[in-house]
Amino acid sequence: MDDMVLKAMAKWPNVPHCYGWLGLDARGNWWLRDAAAQAAGAFAGGAAGAKGSRLEHAGLIDFIGRNYGHDDAGQWFFQNGPQRVYVELEATPWIWRVAEGGAVHAHTGAPARVQQLLTDEAGRVYLQTSGGFGLVHTQDVPAVADLVERGGAWQPQAVRAADLPARFSYVTSPQARHAAGLADTSK
Predict the structure, then answer these.
(1) Rounded CA gap, 128 and 163, in Å?
(2) Which of 59, 76, 78, 115 sits at a 20 to 30 Å CA gap from 17?
(3) pTM for this prediction
């Protein structure tokens, strides 16, 4: 995390967490969800306007990426100074980009090494990597298919999409979990 974020956390340790205001879509884009977007429905629900406004500012996107992490309950967040802004996930906590030669990096730019390749019943492709679990960006599925055809470590295993959050310990909607009154394990 950025040094200024760590200093702010030490200076103001009891700032309330924020839920529902930030989302990560299945293509690695960040979305700001104002009150109107939240009222339109769940981030991943598909209702018109529920995603909010896509963030376009490169500096802000980089700042979020550098300060992106998770708590012990598998809820992903952006540490914005002293405040945790929990992230609504459309799919997974990481969106992987795959180059034709097999180099992999996250939507945040962090490089990773592939440990496991998985596919679900809808044909979506996932990677378990040294950096964590995530969905392969749709534009990079052809590169993965080429790597599978070449053999080696890129051998897919079948999974059920519904099993992924429990299997890889992530929460797609911290807002729903918070609304349900589940204990906050982030401190």
Answers:
(1) 14
(2) 59
(3) 0.90
* CB 118 within 8 Å of CB 44: no
Q: Is 35 helix (H, G, I), strand (E, B) or coil?
A: helix
pLDDT tens digits, 81-113? 888 999 999 999 999 999 988 999 999 999 999
Give tens-digit pLDDT for 115-169: 999 999 999 999 999 999 999 999 999 999 999 998 877 899 999 999 999 999 9
- What is the distance between the alpha carbons of residues 68 and 85, in angstroms, rounded to a whole number? 9
> Contact, 75 vs 86, CB < 8 A?
yes
- Helix segments in the chain, DSSP class H: 3-11, 35-40, 58-66, 141-150, 164-167, 174-179
By C-alpha distance, which of 164, 5, 187, 170 is closest to 76?
Answer: 170
